[in-house]
Design goal:
This protein is α+β, with helices and mostly antiparallel strands. The protein has 13 helices and 16 strands. The protein has an 8-stranded mixed beta sheet with strand order 6-10-11-16-15-14-13-12, with helices on both faces. Strand 2 and strand 3 form a beta hairpin. Helix 4 crosses helix 7 and helix 6 crosses helix 8 (286-295).
């Protein structure tokens, strides 16, 4: 490996450096009489490093025309104090090697491109300011997720991507098969000997480990065959799902609220340059909103009270507000942004609108479920206490037309030393949207998978 200095480290230097080797891609080149300015970026940070290419370098006139936007360079030189405004250091080049040419068709010129345009070239968009920033934050956020749970003595569990269980009971599953779909076929002759699908959640599998290791979490890709082309839905997305034994709904809410604040604070601390960029060019007021959420405690409100607030608000909503119906994003945002003016946690939802595994409350009408809502986006976490009573869970499976035989392993957890346990799920991309101000899920995942689109 070539001994080089990352541009991020060069820009953070505390004193001039006599011999530096940097590598990167040309953002722009500007020529003067006896030298050229090149803005070089290697992806390690948002800012580029200004490189001065003197006209007396060997064969300067021959190769300078090939130093075009998108070309890759290796530059050796001296890091010196910059005479220009807005930059502390620049590199005075003593040797230049053109590593890879970029022809005139290179599409990322020095101008603002729309997100729609950039989605058509997902293989190149990480080189732009916006998407380079998004995916650096995504990487750091993933590390923060693991740090949060490690600090709290959770074990990281890898749950299966291929499953025979429908966790949410909605039937929106991608079938995994080696059978010829045009001929039907006997499922028992299929590769796994039964109908199998891409998972929509790692929760059920994580519960089995929580009932042995106490505190676990899973963090991986999930899939949903929902024919929805909204800015908030993708067919492939990543989920963070902790499960805790010996934990009721109150403890579940405590962890979820702490998790949200931890990720906000970590991102503000670790990605300050990118966050300032998002605040200036993507969502003005983003930093103020995130700090505002950090400073406020989460208020907790029962679902029935939340619906009453909406009904009495006098506000006109696109979707109806009614007891027994799910809250929509516009309802959640009204509660957080207009009524409570801060983050809230809504709990005890109607049993009829929730999945089979949520613990039934004593009133027979609601379940011990909760959603964490934040200004600017609405729901960011959804969770519940899980039903630990064998007979109640069996009744719930029947009510949802699910096979007790298929879920026998899940029922075993209630037969053999059942305990109260709880968990929640956070959509990783939704958290990224919340933190960056980016409004479309397709722009916070490297290669979006949506109905009709599976390019790259």
């Amino acid at each position: 490996m070539i001994n080089r200095t990352r541009i991020r480290d060069a820009l953070k230097a505390t004193e001039p450096m006599e011999s530096v080797t940097v590598m990167g891609w040309v953002r722009t080149r500007r020529d003067a009489k006896d030298f050229s300015f090149v803005d070089l970026n290697d992806g390690s940070c948002l800012s580029g490093l200004q490189v001065i290419l003197p006209g007396d370098l060997p064969d300067y006139d021959r190769w300078i025309g090939e130093i075009t936007t998108g070309a890759s360079l290796q530059v050796q030189g001296h890091l010196v104090a910059s005479q220009g405004k807005g930059q502390r250091w620049e590199l005075q080049a003593s040797a230049v090697q053109l590593m890879g040419r970029s022809d005139a068709s290179y599409p990322l010129q020095k101008k603002r491109h729309s997100p729609e345009f950039m989605r058509e070239m997902a293989h190149l968009r990480p080189r732009s300011n916006l998407f380079g920033s998004v995916f650096r934050v995504r990487s750091r956020l993933a590390q923060a997720v693991h740090r949060f749970f490690s600090e709290r003595d959770f074990f990281y569990i890898h749950t299966p991507i291929i499953t025979a269980s429908d966790c949410e009971g909605a039937g929106e599953l991608f079938r995994v098969t080696t059978l010829d779909p045009s001929r039907g076929g006997d499922p028992t002759k299929d590769f796994f000997g039964k109908p199998s699908y891409l998972t929509v959640s790692g929760q059920l599998a994580a519960e089995t480990f929580a009932c042995a290791l106490s505190n676990v979490y899973t963090f991986g890709p999930t899939f949903r065959a929902e024919n929805s082309n909204t800015s908030r839905h993708a067919s492939e997305f990543w989920m963070i799902e902790p499960e805790m034994a010996f934990c009721d709904l109150g403890g579940d809410m405590d962890l979820a609220e702490a998790f949200v604040k931890y990720l906000i604070q970590d991102t503000l601390d670790q990605s300050a340059e990118e966050m300032a960029f998002f605040d200036a060019f993507v969502d003005k007021g983003l930093l103020e909103r995130l700090r505002w959420i950090l400073e406020r405690p989460f208020e907790r409100v029962a679902y029935t009270q939340a619906v009453d607030i909406l009904l009495q608000s006098g506000q006109r909503f696109e979707y109806p507000v009614q007891h027994g119906l799910n809250l929509q994003s516009e309802h959640e945002r009204f509660l957080t942004e207009s009524h409570f003016k801060g983050p809230i946690t809504v709990y005890d939802y109607p049993k009829a609108i929730k999945p089979f595994y949520m613990r039934a409350n004593d009133d027979g009408q609601t379940v011990a479920a909760m959603d964490v809502l934040v200004p600017g986006i609405g729901e960011i976490v959804g969770g519940s206490q899980r039903e630990e009573r064998l007979e109640v869970l069996e009744s719930q499976l029947r009510a949802h037309d699910l096979s007790l035989e298929d879920y026998s392993w899940y029922l075993d957890l209630r037969r053999y030393g059942s305990v109260p346990h709880s968990g929640f799920g956070m959509g990783f991309e939704r958290m990224l949207m919340f933190l960056t101000g980016v409004t479309n899920i397709r722009d916070v995942i490297p290669f979006a998978r949506t109905p009709g689109h599976a390019s790259f």
